[in-house]
User: What shape does this take?
Amino acid sequence: MYGGTVDPTGQAFQFVNPTGRGPRFNQFKNRASFIKKEVKQENTQEQWGSKSEYILSLIGFAVGIGNIWRFPYLCQKHGGGAFLFAYVVMVIIEGLPLFCLELHIGNHFKKSVSGSMRHIKKGLVGIGWCTMTVCFLCSVYYNSIIMWIIRYLFESFVNPLPWSQCKNDHICCLEDKTQYYWYYEHLGLSDDIRELGSFNPTLVVCLIIAWITIFICISRGIKSSGKVVYFSATAPYVVLIILLFRGATLDGAKDGIIYFLQPEAKKLLDISLWSDAASQIFYSLGIGFGAIVSFASFTKNCDNVIRDSIIITVVNCSTSVLGGFVIFSIVGYRKHMTGADFDQLGSGPGLAFVAIAEAVANMHISPLWAVLFYSMLLLLGVDSLFGLMESMLHQLREEIPVLRRIKKHGVNACVCFLMFLMALPTATNGGQYIINLMDTWAVSIPLLFVALSEIVAVMWFYGIHRFTREVKERTGYTIGWYWQVCWVVLSPLVLLILMGFSLASYFGDMSYKQFIGCAGMTSGLATENGSILVHEKSLNTSYDYTLTYNVTNLDYNITYKEWTVSSELPSEGMAAAFILLLTPLLTLPLGALYGHVFPDRPKEEAQNEEQTQLNLEPCPEHAVI
Assistant: This one.
């Protein structure tokens, strides 16, 4: 039976079915469905081909070159086991909670960092602009490091290895073949940051190969990179395990591994140990780059974010430890063969292209082990670059709607070409100075600001109670007290302390590593008349000269020594450093200004709320985690 609504004149003008099947109700229902479909259509985006593609992409992004060439150095610097303890503590209170938060942001809002922050409050869009700028600058110099790896990989197919022999009688080569090859043959490094010199043709070709490789892999977004990770994210582990078994059989490997694990308890009182542990897990997991948010935005609503974040964090940390075993077993062999102390391990390029290169050159079938090692570094680097590029390109498409009408591979090709042009100076004689400057100033501090801003945006502007309630509605999981305490108290506190230490260390020491060659070395090659030749390079000049000394003993010992010294940044270098630092950071206030000048209209707020409700599909309820 139908009920009716009667006007004052007593005439029934509308009949409503209590069961919801009246004509007026059906008209409203159809209209609501149309609006819902319209909003859903606007937010339709790519999704991962499978869960395994998603997990492997996250692993590939998080596990990078730093796990192999920075983590072992920090262990050596801070007393092995002591650093491992601090590292685990920082994983628990900083790394895991922040990684999980970024996965939640992407999975909840189904947008990039820019889109998610815009959804919360328009003035917060600057956080996304900051991540875009950082990803752009980081990708430029990161692929230049891959350029170096490609050069060494090609050279590894030569027998004997180029860095294992001297092509001339240059005294620096006779002193240390691997360092000579790295500085003179590979880089042709100038002795001043202001002298870029000429282009290195070999490095330019390697840079072209690097950018072509990246473009091919990301040309169709996650549809193409999602397939590549099946190989690029798994192959490094096969190589690591092979190198681990090989390293364990080398003479001196036991000493290296004992040094790696032996704790120095007194080091735990050193505040720099905790600072380095916090920064290592922060940058190792890739927090703040926006890639984690973008990857999670392509997942389904009912995805178990907590489980995924634990898996990725455990795999990342385990890879660092596994890499430490591999590196220290090889470095132990290096010490056995050459006498080089563990304290001279070095970090970054000094480890990969000097210490390990020297150890590999002394192995049997050295080209095989060199090819395996540099292939592993190449795959680790390329995988991490996938995430950086996807984060930047995803946000570009959201912020510039006209780009959505252009085919994806066309936009990606233009961006890659632009970044290749910007990276060309890194293929000059002064290229290493540029890479070090960008790595120090353009990325580290801005990422800390981004991570802290994300916490403030979600926990305070959006509201922790609203966020956790909607997470439960979407995933079926109740966010436990551990996550909430870390998000609101512990993680922001660690970030603030880390930010303070970073700013103090950077501005307290405005210096750079200036190349001086093998100056100061007292060993050399005995000549026929019983004299010894010593190569020296004057610190502030670009010329070399040779001194001759008469000696009676023709034997000499090889002295391992850094071929660079810390020099004060010139005014040009300081200006470049401040520009690199301020360029990403200025986007934060610019975004706030944009939100103030162009605030959300009521229609936009209603649409945002509608989009949130569309994302809240019902999921099975699970236990508190």
